[in-house]
Amino acid sequence: MASPGPAAGLFCVILGEPTPTALEAKLNTTVLDARTLLAPDDFSAVTDTVLDNNPGMPSATAEQIVVDALAFVATAAANPSEPLAPSRTVDEGWHALILHTALYRELCERLGRFVDHFPERPDATRQTPRALIRTAKVMRATGYEPNPGLWTLPAEGRIPVAAKCGHAPKCGVSDPSVVIA
User: Fold this and answer.
1) pTM of whole model > 0.90?
2) Domain boundaries in the chain?
3) CA–CA gap between residue 134 and residue 140 (Å, rounded)
4) Ramachandran angles phi, psi of 166, nearest 5°
5) Spatial contact of 142 and 24, defined as CB atoms under 8 Å apart
6) Looking at per-residue confidence, does 128 or 38 come out higher?
């Protein structure tokens, strides 16, 4: 995974979140590589599923979607009381992970918690910039650097994907009752 550079600052500017303070930057100088959460062959298999579901998508885009989906799942497992939601683009990678059920179960076991998926019909009023900003902030605090191009609202349509469900922020585990606006 590329080191955080100008893109990380751009993400903050695009979404309107303040850049991290110097103290926050010192406390979290290590960026975790979510790609290492899967063996290379497993990572390739999940990436192939994303590619199969999205004909014409560049391989590099599919790989980054899987990386951010892994980072999202790891963040949700590490922060079960935090209301989190993936972008529709990252949800495509999460769907691909879930389709590899044994691999997904083993991943969640290694992460210490099973992360449930709560699909909802798409609704632009549920997924807000605030929800994506909040999720990205928790991901950064957990040690992952979200790819800014993947954390956009569905209406922006930067990367069209097959995933058609939307997500309101929910806890990462089986507690759909916790939702933020």
Assistant:
1) no
2) 6-171
3) 10
4) -120, 165
5) no
6) 38
Structure tokens at 79: 């922060």
Residue linked to tokens 């979290």: 28
What is the chain's mean pLDDT, rounded?
77
Residues 26-80: tens digit of each pLDDT: 455 578 999 999 999 999 999 999 999 999 999 999 999 999 999 999 999 999 9
Measured CA to CA in angstroms, residue 47 lies from 34, 58, 68, 142 at distances of 14, 11, 12, 23
CA-wise closest residue to 77 among 47, 106, 48, 39: 106
The tokens describing 71, both together, are: 């980072």
- And the tokens for 15? 């979404």
DSSP 86-154: --HHHHHHHHHHHHSHHHHHHHHHHHTS------B---TTTS-HHHHHHHHHHHHHHT----GGGS--G
What are the structure tokens assigned to 150, written together?
């993947």
pLDDT band at 178 (very low <50, low <70, confident <90, very high): very low
